[in-house]
Amino acid sequence: APAESPAEDTAATDEAGAVDETAAAEKVRQEQLDGLLDKAQAALEADQLTTPQRANAAYYFRQALQLQPNHPPAEKGLTEIGERYLALFDNNLQRGRTDLAGQQLERAAEFLGRENLGVVDRKKQLTAALAAKAETPAAKPAPPIARTPASQPAAAGPTPKASAKPVSDYARKIAAGHSALAAGWDAGVLAIGGAG
To answer: Could you read off the pLDDT tens digit of each residue along the chain, which spans 196 residues?
Structure first.
């Protein structure tokens, strides 16, 4: 068999080197992608959907999509964030917090799209809740307390004097009850301590 020329040997080595560099670059990219997805999942589990800035689930999923566009797990993660915002919307709407529910609906639309059936349905629910809230009459304030002007004389008759005796009776009863409670507590603590 004829021996390969030095030029052919160099071309084969260059080609093998290029394949090795491509494989190494792909391995590094995959490790970066896996790291971003791990961080995104941890943030999602901690309910850090869009905050804190540059350290939340949405941020990490979007970084993963920049590294590998149309990456199914990253796209699914962004969809899950939108669904979580819909759940938060439902919870707050049920509690009558329409302002907060509206903000969460906007967030859901960012991730799911305004045409998403869940977003469209909740938009209708929010509109109905806001309309019902607008139709509900506001609570009327309590009428002012009628006061006797200082210029008018007070009603005729003796002014009852407050007696200090009932207050002192109550104070004595409270003190006696407190002492009894304290004694019972001490006895209970001693009984529990002695049982061990």
So the answer is: 555 666 666 666 667 667 788 999 999 999 999 999 999 999 999 999 999 999 999 999 999 999 999 999 999 999 999 999 999 999 999 999 999 999 999 999 999 999 999 999 999 999 999 999 998 876 666 667 766 555 555 555 555 555 445 555 545 555 555 444 444 444 444 343 443 3
Helix (H, G, I), strand (E, B) or coil at 42: helix
Q: Please list, in sequence order, all residues whose beta carbon lies within 8 angstroms of the beta carbon of residue 59, skipping any fewer than 6 positions away.
A: 43, 50, 53
Residue 6 token pair: 């030095």
Instruction: Tell the residue number behind the tokens 């961080």, with chain if given.
Output: 39
Among 72, 85, 74, which residue's Cα sits nearest to residue 113?
A: 85
Its pTM surpasses 0.70: no
CA 184 to chain centre: 45
